């Protein structure tokens, strides 16, 4: 896949404090690349450097190998929402399209089409200030893609959306990627990231901790876990082979297994006296990987130990 955006060894300090160190990743045509990290990790600072809102102290950011990033080819849904309040929705959208040199007739058609998709049909003459938070977010999303950008940055696009609207956003984001848009997605909603992202970059304290495809990350970081429903002593479960730790809630126990355990072999060695009403084996979720890596809670690879 063709590389669109390349970030190499990005470094940034605010006064004496270094908030980004050696950040390198790329975003390719037609992919959804997630940038993840705990609060204060450096995601927004990375995005602001890409957008030219601030400049890096070290490293480079190139678009199709050029240092000059053409603003009319980029779409940006910022974390801080804000549209001109007393202006009608259509006027805002056309104004923003015009700023990106996009043909107005086409922009109007696209705006009407998206307003319909987002359940805002007939609202084109409503002033922005009369919209609910979720409706305003939909309009801002349309504003970020009205000009058919090649590269799209979505900073927390799902916050404040109801589940139906989240699904509509998810579908539109997928469609944009299928049409070839390169998408950089920042979100704390791990389940949505897990469903959407092709690759991910996780940052903590300004440094890379994970970089790879969702499958690579799962294979490298997500061990298997076994959920057993049945009344068993926690200490009995903890003594089972290859069990890293056990979490118990009532009669439900989750056994986190060591790296490289083959669950088919492991399950054959479970003692017969265990009480098993139900048993499931899954890989741990992205949510659990995120928490484990950010907190160093389990025996999984911790921050700084990654060689990804
Ligand atoms: N303009 C600024 N001046 C000084 N420090 C800043 C500035 N902007 C960000 N920082 C600091 O840089 C670090 C990274 O912040 P950043 O906003 O990039 O984090 P983030 O990963 O986007 O967090 P969140 O998930 O909370 O949005 C934080 O320690 C923050 O306090």
From TrEMBL:
Molecular function GO terms recorded: ATP binding; ATP hydrolysis activity
Entry keyword set: ATP-binding, Nucleotide-binding, Transport
Domain ABC transporter: from-to ranges: 5-230
TM ranges: none
Entry-linked Gene3D superfamilies: P-loop containing nucleotide triphosphate hydrolases
SMART domains on file: AAA (SM00382)
Family from the record: Belongs to the ABC transporter superfamily.
The name this protein goes by in its record: ABC transporter ATP-binding protein
Species this chain originates from: Anaerobacillus isosaccharinicus
Lineage, uppermost ranks: Bacteria, Bacillati, Bacillota, Bacilli, Bacillales
